[in-house]
Amino acid sequence: MVKIGQFNFLKIFRKTARGTFLEAGNLGQVFLPVAQTPSHCEVGDKIQVFLYRDSHDEVVATTKKPRIEIGGTTCLKVLSVSRVGAFLDWGLPKDLLAPFGEQSKKMEVGEFHIVHAYEDNTGRLCASSKLNKFIKAETSGLKAGDSVNLIVGDQTDLGYKMIVNQAYWGLLHHDDIFREIKYGQKLKGFIKKLRADKRIDITLKQPGVSGDKSLASKILAKIESGNGFSAINDKSPPELIYQEFGVSKKVFKAELGALYKQRKILIGKDGIRFANTDKH
């Protein structure tokens, strides 16, 4: 079934100097401007187009890829606000409407908001920032270690809420954040843990890739390369620790503690060094 708000393969019905008319089933014929019609296509050929309603409420086609499709979730910029709602930049000539009733908080021009695209009761594609209506709290079909697509949500006391595969809520704990992230950013991540309540804990580093033993070796090698000293210690920024060792600050601090208990290193305010002249 041909549907507004997504890509469809449609047959060319007629070509004119202005553009191409496509057969859109239940929607009748839709128009594709000549500038977007592939030059090699002829009547009877099928082409892939995105369907949406223009400023005259007519269904039109485009070969351009919008920033969001129906059922999708992403972060969009507010371009204008009118008496009916906010209009968002989704990469097409007619801006995407986020009605006031679908705003979790009032949108202002220039702001970025994570929204979900849905079809309203008149058949128009609209945006909603009331994400709990569309994003589920409990997951199914995922397991620890799975690779997932993430969108960074709001910050909480525990960490950052993450939208997992545009379908589920997850949580990236502060201890697992090793570089700067920001609201609306798209990331690749992994399922760290599926909790008993079916909620998801997220990690940005693939679980099990680097064990404690290899991390200890990296730390000791770093000290050795610095003639017995490294300025990177438990007070260093998370992003610096990850850049050097590929682990979160929490994991790094735990390994420093283990090496200290083994009397292999000393931890000072200025950095870390070997505990004795025999090194390790």
Describe this structure in words.
The protein is mainly β. The chain has 4 domains: 7-62, OB fold (Dihydrolipoamide Acetyltransferase, E2P), CATH 2.40.50.140; 73-133, Nucleic acid-binding proteins (OB fold (Dihydrolipoamide Acetyltransferase, E2P)), CATH 2.40.50; 147-203, OB fold (Dihydrolipoamide Acetyltransferase, E2P) (Beta Barrel), CATH 2.40.50; 212-274, Winged helix-like DNA-binding domain superfamily/Winged helix DNA-binding domain (Arc Repressor Mutant, subunit A), CATH 1.10.10. It is 12% helix and 37% strand. The chain contains 3 helices and 18 strands. Strands 3-2-1-4-5 form a 5-stranded antiparallel sheet, with no helix packed on it. Strands 8-7-6-9-10 form a 5-stranded antiparallel sheet, with no helix packed on it. The chain has a 5-stranded mixed β-barrel with strand order 11-12-13-15-14. Strand 17 (265-267) and strand 18 form a beta hairpin. Helix 1 crosses helix 3. The longest helix is centred in the last third of the chain and has 14 residues, at 212-225. It is elongated, with a radius of gyration of 26 Å. Belongs to the CvfB family. InterPro entries: CvfB_fam (IPR014464), CvfB_S1_st (IPR039566), CvfB_WH (IPR040764), NA-bd_OB-fold (IPR012340), WH-like_DNA-bd_sf (IPR036388). It comes from Aliikangiella coralliicola. This is GntR family transcriptional regulator. It holds the Pfam family WHD_CvfB.
